[in-house]
Design brief:
2 domains, 429 residues, 30% helix, UDP-n-acetylglucosamine1-carboxyvinyl-transferase, Chain, 13 helices, alpha/beta, binds ligand SPQ
């Protein structure tokens, strides 16, 4: 666990960054390429630790995966020919890998054990296992399957109709992936729409799926066809630099190839509502995953309330939005975001503790936080809690103040943005 002292002395931020591949889409590209028989190719793959964990799991299932920089070639004999792994499937720090693998393995002919790191060991798995068990899955684990390690014995599945108790793309995706090997048509009702990368990729691989008014319907037993996946840049990674550009003095940053899927663009809505000076050029709205070039300049910001259906569209951006709110005029309220408590760490506690150390006027609530903008931030020693998004929030704060910021365990940032500090250097003037 390496400590780092960041002393940037309030630089002007100016320049261009091409954002690395989207983590959610990268995971799914490996999964779908492993399901479909034949050769799937992927470009723009994220070389983050979480996505490498996904590759490792599928190699253990006998899928051939070649990685050449950000290009991937997947040669699969189809999911029916996956081999029973002789070792546990280790999912590292990745909630997405752990939960989606459960859905994929539920209807297979395989017995497997899934385990991850200490953070994964604290994240709730019952939310996935409950609907999968309704489909006929055999999954056992610590505290009746609430936590890893989990053992799964593939079994015949049937489709279900399921109303999502929480907005979660991982739960929705696990059910959809299990349905691939289930009899009948699965229907999922979402109160607030979560990211839809799985639905989009099912279509891209040739499946028929309907999505109407928050209801997803998908018939089991459809065959997926190998194809090419072009991974867009990760808007959740871009968010750190969008916020830096809006907050730092005399700054202008252009971010290229930013994924612009409407189920992920809550951060753009928030920046716009707060008054950020942004220019957005959307490249191809018809693409499987649209992208945009976004330029952001130093802005006068006003506080807003962030809640309701907006929350799932920006859930991973809340740590950096909280930092943004420290500069906004007035009081920003973030609510309906209790899900933050079950991420890589409790992100309500972590954000409030660490921003307080920097001098922010912020308080935690049961389902979010309240930030009184306008306080002068200063240097501090910060904890990352082993959470990449808390680590990056601290590093962006360091760009905005005169004093040094110390951060413990910066390795965790490699989970989603291994080139983060190199990209910071590109825009410091
Ligand atoms: O994969 P993991 O560890 O769950 O990663 C996080 C993140 O901050 O990168 C959450 F901690 O992103 C999730 C996201 O919060 C990735 C994801 C997906 O790819 O489907 C969906 C979201 O989680 P959820 O709980 O809404 O399903």
């Amino acid at each position: 666990m390496a400590d780092v002292r960041l002393h940037y002395k309030k630089p002007i931020l100016h320049g261009d960054i091409t954002v690395p591949g989207d983590k959610s889409v990268s995971h799914r590209s490996i999964m779908f390429g492993s399901i479909a028989e034949g050769r799937t190719t992927v470009s723009g793959f994220l070389l983050g630790d979480d996505c490498l964990s996904t590759i490792d799991c599928f190699r253990k299932l006998g899928v051939e995966i070649e990685l050449n920089d950000t290009n991937v070639v997947i040669d699969s004999q189809g999911m029916k020919n996956w081999k029973e792994p002789i070792d546990i499937l280790y999912t590292g720090n990745s909630g997405t890998t752990t939960r989606l693998m459960l859905g994929l393995l539920a209807g297979s002919s395989i017995h497997a054990i899934l385990n991850g790191d200490a953070s994964i060991g604290k994240r709730p798995m019952k939310r996935v296992i409950t609907p999968l068990r309704k489909m006929g899955a055999h999954i056992t684990g610590r505290m009746d399957g609430q936590y890893t390690p989990l053992a799964i014995k593939g079994s015949p599945l049937h489709a279900i109709e399921y109303t999502m108790p929480v907005a979660s793309a991982q739960v929705k995706s696990a059910i959809l992936l299990a349905t691939l090997q289930a009899e009948g048509t699965t229907v999922i009702h979402e109160k607030s729409v979560s990211r839809d990368h799985t639905e989009r990729m099912l279509r891209q691989f040739g499946a028929e799926i309907t999505v109407e008014n928050g209801t997803v319907s998908y018939k089991g037993g459809q065959t997926l066809h190998a194809t090419h996946v072009d991974v867009p840049g990760d808007i959740s990674s871009a968010a750190f630099f969008l916020v830096a550009g809006a907050m730092a003095e005399n700054s202008e940053i252009t971010l290229h190839n930013v994924g612009f899927n409407p189920t992920r663009t809550g951060i753009i809505d928030v920046l716009a509502a707060m008054g950020a000076d942004m220019r957005i050029i959307v490249a191809d709205e018809e693409a499987a995953e649209p992208t945009a070039t976004i330029t952001v300049r130093t802005s006068d910001l006003a506080a807003i309330t962030i809640d309701g259906e907006l929350i799932p569209r920006l859930i991973d951006e809340i740590p950096i939005i909280a930092l943004l709110a420290t500069k906004a005029k007035g009081t920003t309220v973030i609510r309906d975001a209790a899900e933050l408590k079950v991420k890589e760490t409790d992100r309500i506690t972590a954000v409030v503790n660490e921003l307080k150390k920097l001098g922010a006027d912020i308080e935690a609530t049961d389902d979010g936080m309240i930030i009184h903008g306008g306080s002068e931030l200063h240097g501090a020693s910060l904890q990352t809690y082993g959470d990449h998004r808390i680590g990056m929030m601290g590093a962006i704060a360091a760009l905005l103040i005169d004093d040094a910021v110390e951060l413990d365990d910066i390795e965790c940032i490699a989970v989603s943005y291994p080139t983060f500090f190199e990209d910071i250097q590109k825009i410091i003037k």
